[in-house]
Structure formats: structure tokens, C-alpha cells
Amino acid sequence: MLAIDPILEQELWWKPLAIVGVKVLIIFVVGLLATMFMVWFERKVVSGMQNRVGPNKAGPYGLLQTLADGIKAFFKETFRPAKSDPLVYKLAPYLMFVPAFVIWAVLPLGGDFSDGKDGTVTIFGEVTRVQLADPQIGILLVLAMSGIAVYGVLLAGWASGSKYPLLGAVRGSAQMISYEAALGLSLAAVLLASGSLSTARIVQTQNDLADWNLITTGVIPFVIFVIAVTAELNRPPFDLVEAEQELVSGFNTEYGGIGFALFFLAEFMNVITMSGIIVTLFLGGPQPIVVGDVNIFGWAGPFMGTLWFVLKLFLFLYMYVWFRATLPRLRYDQLMDLGWKLLIPVSLGWFLLLAALREFSPEGASSDSIRVTVIAIAVGAAAIGLFSLALRVSRRNRDLIDATNPPSNTGAPV
Fold first, then answer.
1. Residue 129 forms beta bridges with which residues?
2. What's phi and psi for 239, nearest 5 deg?
3. d(C-alpha 13, C-alpha 100), whole Å
4. How far apart are CA 158 and CA 167, in angstroms?
């Protein structure tokens, strides 16, 4: 516990405890406000892309529209289906809502990490971090919280006591579990480059633009991580958990009022949370971008890292809204093929390549790196060729079976 925050390494009098309590309150309040802003931001940006106005009545520029919608949802009459499980039905929304806030506790939201510094700051004479906690297993906590969200989807469908939510829950959980593998393998590449599970340490190792894990891991893990996270979040073009043309709303069909509002808040909160994880893992988190000697947020002093984090975060929030406004929804078979047949093999192969380069190229020996890279490319090309051959053989055998066994027309009139 003492390694979580430097402020806990001393006697816990009222000042350290007050600082920790304020950090907890800030994360909770800012998380809720950020979720409200994200709902408004998405509606305004999508409406702009589609040549519409968007919310513009409640408050300036429609900023209070999300607050009005939330108040209406929370004060609606709640109900519970007669055949539902009382406890699990009420618990499921919180299994999606709470993990999003817990993940924020381990993300560095600021601090000075430049020149190898550890990111600590001094507040009222106390040394602490601009994050709630920095456990040595921070990334494992992120993965654990991401996995708990799957239980929220599955249990919500099962506890509703209806076949339609159950079918939607099975479909959604299969999607989320499938992309967890690719997400974990791409994350393993970051851990290999950083050498630590601590989020603060991962940010500390990305001291310069050239040291960002986006570059040191070869971009491929970053692309795979973004795609896998998009599928985990059920965001377009992977929003098949609530495919309106095929399902009756999905796993949350039987929810209304505050239960549905919690699912809705969790969806948008997770977009912000996962964007923060991407920034932390691949783009240096609060690390500044310095071109020459120019740092546009140098005037902010101790808040410089936080401003850089927010700026990078906005880039990904806009990216996800852009995805929603432009990309068509995939078919479910295309979704599963992408995850199992492309993302998992590529992420595994790339991780093995990075591990081989790290093992056989100590001290940056270029000749060994080139040799290992050539061998890896050859092995990868052979694997892709064998995989393509297996798919062609499978299709040919299927076509032969279909040709020799034509479908019977038993339902046709005689």
C-alpha cells in the first residue's frame, strides 16, 4: 500500500488524508462532468458532420441538454420484469458503471515526468502524484476492470428473464471476450517496451517523442489496440450489441429509468476512460510535446502535464465521434473474422517479433536486428500463405458438399 502514493509513506494525519479525499472527489466529479460533456460533444460533432444543428435550446450551445436528459431518466418510474432475478438485475448496471471510475484511479492525469522525473508534485507541502494511486500492478487492474464490464452485459441479459435480452447479452459478451485477446496481446508489446506494469513508470519511460510506445512498438500494437478497444466499447462500426435492425435493443431491453441511465452513462464514460488509457500507454500521457525549445503549455507550470493529457484525450474523443458519423456497421461474421483471423494472429506475431528483437539484439546491434526481422517476415509470410491455403481448401470442400447435396424443396407445392 505504501508504494501506491508517496503521501502514504508518512504518518497519516489530517492533511494527507484530506488530500487523498479531495483527489477521490475530483475524480468522481470530473468523471461525471466529463461524461455529460462527452454526450453533448458527440451530439454536436455528429450533427455538424451531418449538416444539422444538434442540441441548442437547453443552456448556451445546448450544454445543459445532457443534464436535462439525465434528470428525466433518473426520475422516471423504475420497473422490474416479473421473471427477473431481483439482485442481479439491479447489480448489473453497476458492474459496467463502477469499473470506469476505478480505472481512472490509476491513470496519471498530470505531473512532471520530463527528464526522467517520477511525476510527483508538492501540494500544501506534501509530495504526492496527480493520480489517485500508482500500484505496481496498475495495468493488470485496468485489464481486470475491463473484464468486469463483460459480466455487466452478460448478467443484465440473463437477469432480465427474457429471451431477447439474453440473446443480445450472449452476442455482446462473445464480441467483448473475442477482442480481449487482441487487446491483451497489443498491451503486452507496451509492457515489453516499458518493462513495468505501473502506469506512472510507463509514462516515465516515454520521455521524448521518439520514446513514445507508439513508435518504439512499431505502430502496429497501437492500431490493434485502438480497433480492439472500439469493439470492447461497442462503438461504431462494432456496435452490434445494440444492432437495431437485428435485435430488440440488446442486453438492456428490459431496463428503464435509472438502470438504463447507468448503462448509458457507462457507455460514454468508458469512451473517455479508454481514450485515457490509449494516451497513457502509447502517447506519453502527461508528457509534453516539445518541438525544438517550444512548449505551448510551458506557461502552465505544474498544470502543464494535465493540459497535455487533456489535449491528447480530445484527439481520441473526436476520433471516436468521427467513427460514429462515417463508418457503416459491420456484419457479425465480419466482426468475428476480423478479431480471430486477423487481429489476434497479427498482434501475437508482432509481439513475438518484438521479443525476438529484444532478446537477440542487445545494445541495439543492427545486424542481429536485421537478421531477426528478415526471419520474422519470412515466417509471417509463410504463415499467411498456409492460412490462405487452408481457407481456400475449406471453401472448395464446402462448395463440393453444397453441389452434391442440393437443398430439398420439401415446402414447395407438388
1. 120
2. -85, 55
3. 30
4. 9
Q: Pick from 213, 223, 220: which is nearest to 190 by CA?
A: 213
Check whether 12 has a pLDDT greater than 70. no
Which grid cell sits at 354? 518484438
Best mean pLDDT range from 96-100, 109-113, 133-137, 280-284: 280-284
Sign of CA dihedral 294, 298, 303, 307: negative
Length of the chain: 414
Taking a C-beta distance cutoff of 8 angstroms, is the pair 295, 304 a contact? yes
Which residue, among 180, 192, 188, 194, has the nearest Cα to 284 in the 3D structure? 194
370 Cβ partners below 8 Å, 6+ apart? none
Report how far residue 35's alpha carbon sits from residue 61's, in angstroms, rounded to the nearest whole number. Answer: 17
Work out whether the CA dihedral 118, 123, 128, 129 comes out positive or negative.
negative
In this predicted structure, what is the pLDDT of residue 367? 52
Confidence of residue 1 (pLDDT cuts 50, 70, 90): very low
CA distances (Å), origin 362, targets 127, 215, 355, 356, 366:
37, 19, 11, 10, 9
Sequence-ordered strand ranges (E) for 215-332 = none
The count of other CB atoms within 10 Å of the CB of residue 228 is 28
* Peptide bond between residue 60 and the one before it cis (omega within 30 degrees of 0): no
Cβ atoms 228, 183 nearer than 8 A: yes
- % the chain with pLDDT above 90: 17
**φ, ψ for residue 294, nearest 5 deg:** -100, 125
> At a CB cut-off of 8 Å and minimum separation 6, what does 38 contact?
268, 269, 271, 272, 317
pTM of structure = 0.86
Report DSSP state, residue 343. Answer: I
Q: Is the dihedral of CA 149, 226, 186, 288 positive or negative?
A: negative
Most confident of 110-119, 235-244, 256-265: 256-265
Alpha-carbon gap, residue 382 to 385, rounded angstroms: 5
Residue with cell 506557461: 299
Give the cell for residue 221.
Answer: 500494437
Cβ-in-10-Å burial (0-12, 13-18, 19+) of 107 comes to buried
pLDDT digits (tens, 9 = 90+) for 335-356: 888 888 889 988 888 898 888 8
